[in-house]
Every structure is written in C-alpha cells, then in structure tokens.
Write a structure and sequence with these properties.
Layout (H helix, E strand, L loop, with lengths): L2 H27 L6 H27 L3 H37 L7 H27 L3 E9 L8 E7 L10 H14 L3 E4 L9 H6 L14 E3 L3 H5 L2 H10 L3 E2 L3 E4 L5 E4 L5 H5 L6 H4 L9 E4 L6 H6 L4 E4 L10 H8 L5 E5 L2 E5 L17 E9 L3
Parallel strand pairs: 1-12, 2-3, 3-4, 4-5, 7-8, 8-9, 9-11
Antiparallel strand pairs: 2-12, 6-7, 10-11
Helix pairs in contact: 1-2, 1-3, 2-3, 3-4
Length: about 375
C-alpha cells in the first residue's frame, strides 16, 4: 500500500474513532452531577481510556513492550465498549425523538431519560463485553464430515485439523498457543492446516516472547502446512513470513503439494499481497493447470471470495477464514452481506466450502456473535 493511501486510510479511521468518542463523551458528561471535581474526574478517565487503543498501536509499532501490550488489551476492550455504547445511545436518541413527538415525554423529563438511557447503555455494554470475553477465551472444536467422490489410493478416511486467524501478538500470547497445541494434539489429525493470519500484524510482540515456539502439533515437520493471510502482509511479509517458516511451518505461496493418496493441496497467496507489495497472486486456473482432477483437490485460500472460481475449476474442498464471523454483534450481519459464505459450510456444485470463525481475534478479546474455534474435518473418499 502506498504511503499516501496509508495516510488517507488512517485519517479516516482516526476521524471516525474521534467523532464516536466525542459523541459518547458528551452523552456521559451531561449525566454527571454538576460538580466541578466530578466532571473533571469523568473527563480525565474517559480521555485516558479513549486514547489507549491508538496509543497502544503507535507504541507497538515504535517499540513493542509490556506497556504496549497492556494498552492494546485495554484499548481492545474500549473498542467493544465504544461500539455498543454508540449503538445503544443512538437508539436511545431515536426513541427520545419519537417520545417527544408523541408527547410521552415532556421537556422536564428529558434529563432524567438521558441519565437512565446512559446507565442502561453502560450496563448492557458491560454484559455483552463480559459474555463476549468468555466466548473468546473458551475455544471449541467444530467438526465437519465431508464425502468426496474421488479415490485417494488406499486412504478411505483422512482427519484434518484446520486453524484460521490465530492473530498472535499483544493479545493472543503464550497461554493461547499452548491451549491451541493441546487441542490439536488431542485430535490426532493426519494433517494440520493453518489458514492465514497466524500473526496479528506488527511482529514486535511476537518476537519479544518468541511466541510461535509454543506452538506444536503431531508430525509438525511433514504434515503441517500454512498459507498467508492479509495480516502477514500488514506487519511486513519480508519479516513475518521468514519468522514463521523458521519455526518449521511450511507456507504455501501459490504452490501445490501432493499428499499421501494422491491428494493435492493448493495454497494460495493472500489477495492482499498486491495491496501491500504489488505482487499479484497466480490465477486459480494457472495454479491448477497440472492438477490431476481425478484425485481429491483441497484449496486453502484465506479470504472466501469468488467461490464460483473454486467450483468452476473442480476444487473438492476449500478452507478459508478471515471473516471472524463478524466477531462483534451486530457486525456479523455486515460481514454476511459482504461474503457469499461468511461462516460455516456451503456446497456449490461438487465443491465443499468451509469458512472458520478463527481461533484468535483482532482488537478486542471479545466474541459476541461467534466462538473461537478449531476445525476437525473428517474426509471420506468414496471413488473407485
């Protein structure tokens, strides 16, 4: 991405972030008792909390430290609080307008209404954040059973563990990696596939604790494959990808490998490689020009876009992530409009497609509309 594009993007994000916080600030400020010291205390606390997310990101970029980790964690929770308080306060303002026009509320009732609305908003936001936090730290195993009508030699059944969107960094750290490793080890898969966004972005927090060393899985050297996600490029692919590969994880960058039974595994370079490095990934047709379509074909593509291409080119199973299924309600509805399949399973023709909500997360450690998950996919081959 060009420097000018980054400036424009950051300017828009910071402007929106600032305006939303100003809106919330004055809603709360007007409910604080008209006592100077209380107004000052409220203002200081609010500004400090609102600044944590941006301060954490800038500090992490300049010099990763425990302080930047703490600011990112607090800032993440503030993002969740900011989203929900904004939505609920906006809704309360709409209801106030209706109440005023209908005559239900008089002018003398407005202040009391606003105080009550702000209190209810904070309580509802807190409930969603606490519930979402519990969801985020309690990953589940999501199982799928897929039948592929093609032969795979002597192999009739194959077990695959697939993990997307780990987002290793300031928030997802050593404890999470140990938990993930334990979950995969308990599955005893034949292959483990990482579906992109292994690292959250900036590599500093990962290098500081060498966090990827805590990840392990059965047969790590010859049954573990990965692909890039957009976040591998956000943080600088020239540093991130070599670090991952040094840990024994083979990243497929527009490559095809043949597994046992003649099963063909295709790993696509993430589409954002062009945005950040002006590197076009190969068209799927070209990647598959030497594919034996009489044998099973598995495609790994981080972002579940243009699913018709997979169907048209005879892919048997596509595995993707990226969407987090919205992560925070009600963003799942927006994500669902962007992607043909934003989460779960879809069959297009003879192509099976699975999109995971991911193990980790971006920003707040909150999942209010999805669960953190690891996929366990059982493939059965029924062809002669």
């Amino acid at each position: 991405m060009k420097a000018s594009q980054w400036v424009i993007f950051l300017s828009i994000v910071i402007t929106i972030y600032t305006l939303v916080n100003i809106y919330i600030f004055f809603k709360g400020y007007n409910t604080v008792p008209d006592i100077r010291i209380k107004k000052i205390i409220y203002s200081v606390i609010f500004v400090l909390l609102a600044a944590t997310f941006i301060a954490g990101k800038f500090l992490e970029s300049a010099h990763s430290s425990v302080l930047s980790d703490v600011l990112n964690i607090i800032g993440g929770f503030w993002l969740g609080f900011m989203l929900y308080t904004f939505l609920f306060l906006l809704l309360s303002d709409m209801l106030l307008i209706l109440a005023r026009f209908s005559g239900i509320l008089g002018r003398s009732d407005i202040l009391q209404y606003r105080k009550l609305a702000f209190l209810i908003t904070v309580l509802l936001s807190a409930v969603l954040i606490v519930g979402g936090f519990i969801n985020a730290i309690m990953p589940v195993i999501k199982e799928y059973k897929i039948v592929i009508n093609k032969p795979a030699g002597e192999i009739k059944t194959l077990h695959i563990a697939a993990v997307s969107d780990i987002h290793l960094g300031s928030v997802i750290r050593k404890r999470s990696m140990k938990k993930l490793s334990g979950m995969i080890d308990a599955m005893k898969p034949d292959y483990t596939l990482l579906l992109g966004d292994i690292v959250d972005g900036e590599l500093g927090p990962v290098l500081r604790g060498d966090l990827l060393k805590y990840f392990s899985c059965p047969g790590m050297n010859n049954t573990l494959f990965a692909i890039t996600g957009n976040h591998e490029f956000i943080g600088g692919a020239d540093r991130t990808i070599p670090y991952i590969e040094k840990k024994g994880i083979r990243i497929l960058k527009d490559e095809v490998v043949t597994l046992k039974g003649g099963i063909q595994l295709i790993g696509r370079l993430d589409r954002d490689s062009f945005r950040y490095y002006a590197k076009e990934r190969l068209p799927l047709e070209e990647l598959m020009k030497n594919i034996d379509r009489s044998r099973p074909v598995i495609l790994l593509d981080h972002q579940p876009l243009r699913l018709d291409e997979s169907e048209r080119n005879g892919v048997d199973l596509q595995l993707s992530g990226h969407t987090h299924n919205g992560q925070l309600w009600p963003l799942n509805y927006i994500v669902g409009r962007i992607f043909e399949l934003s989460y779960g399973y879809l069959k297009k023709g003879n192509t099976h497609i699975i999109v995971s909500s991911g193990f980790g997360l971006w920003g707040p450690r909150i999942r209010s509309c999805s669960r953190s998950e690891v996929l366990l996919i059982t493939l059965e081959f029924s062809g002669n």
